[in-house]
Sequence to fold (474 residues):
Amino acid sequence: MINRFFSPEEMQAQKDCAASVRKIVTDRDIYSRPLRAHVMTLGCQQNEADSEKLEGMALEMGYTLTDTPEKADLILVNTCAIREHAEQRALSFIGNFKKLKAANPYLVVGVCGCMVSQEHRINDIKHKYPYVDFVFGTASLHRFPSLLYEALKKKKRVFFHSGEEDYLVAEGLPIHRNGKTHAWVSIMYGCNNFCSYCIVPYVRGRERSRRREDIVAEVRELVANGYKDITLLGQNVNSYGKDGQYGYDFADLLEELAQIDGDFYLRFMTSHPKDVTDKLIKVVTLYPKIAPHFHLPLQSGSDRVLRTMNRHYDMAKYLSTVEKLRALNPDITLTSDIIVGFPGETQEEFEETISALENIRFDMIYSFIYSARKGTPAAEMEDQIPREEQNRRYSRLLAVQQDISLAKNTPLVGRTERVLCDGISKNDPTVYCGRTPGNKIVFFAGDESMTDSFVNVKIDRAEAFALFGTVVKN
Ligand code: 5AD
Ligand code: SF4
Fold:
């Protein structure tokens, strides 16, 4: 097999750097109190998973963690680049750190993740944000200790961006998990698909899979530690193993993990419709430990648009996958991603997307207004759709889907669902909340003993985006 891993020596060198940083950070002759680190995460679940590793490394380096940037001596912003809005948010947060830096002479600021895996954004940070001390891209996550060490020790700004690392996997990083029941497990990194609108393949590098035994060991350990909801992550999980672990694919991995003893659910995201095999559909619908939820980004209901998006499937292929899934499990939750206002999308083609939603009837969709990403083919296409028209299509899409989501949720009224309780709702402190195996959010009157456990909830009322119910005895 091709060596796709950073060598043990390289990983050890980072551990040594972490120890050196720890010496500096905990030196009470320099710092009169324990130092605090804040990791700010923008973007997707993969970034959340990466941030748990960054926090793990910060702890290893002697920092304590804080949720408040104002209290931090080290701020690390893990950025996203998927849409313009995500980048503007990151830049506006970073802009605010100027005054924090003036107020705290110890403060060190780092920026990492997808936004700064692009040359032009690295240059922006270099020239317009002089109070940022160090920068590194997605594939160099494990270098956090050495880059921080350089910034602290040499008191110089450090910008690290190496294309070579886009082919490699770093194993064995410490992880500070943010949940007690939900956990992320990255199974692969990068993407090879180059959908014409998408920046991900440029900022996260090529597809590379973790070793089967490393993933299995991680999931086993999570289950042993009481984790009940484990999400396998990858830009395109269906490509797992295609980069060298011949004879063992994503369906095999899921099947192996679903046979681990314990009371837990496995989830996965994201799947690419072009790669969903009959074998995968069978495994997903066969094992009770695999949550009955399939997230399958459609992006558009028009074959022509799908072609210019470089998606490598058409509506017929997509519909046949949905049919096969529903034939084996009619209750499976189906969710999707849709982009409106892609360059050249005509009114009729947009209507095809609306018809696709009405025809497929997803439980929920994540909808996005197309955002041009520098360096992608779609950004160069003629016929960019004006913003007002994009907004109009977006509102229409949301309204159509809202009715469908409500219609999909309504039959759940009267049913009892096994809900993993997350505790008191962040939005409404008078109720508890949790998720069904099909990943629907449920609100109910509860008590603290239910937090982090499974409870049976009888559904009393349904809305488009949530269910409301009453706890019933197990
Ligand atoms: N503009 C809008 N949405 C995008 N997505 C990816 N790239 C873009 C873009 N340039 C959406 C896709 C993808 C989801 C994660 O984000 O729908 O599935
Ligand atoms: Fe982007 Fe397409 Fe890869 Fe998903 S599969 S990350 S949309 S290029």
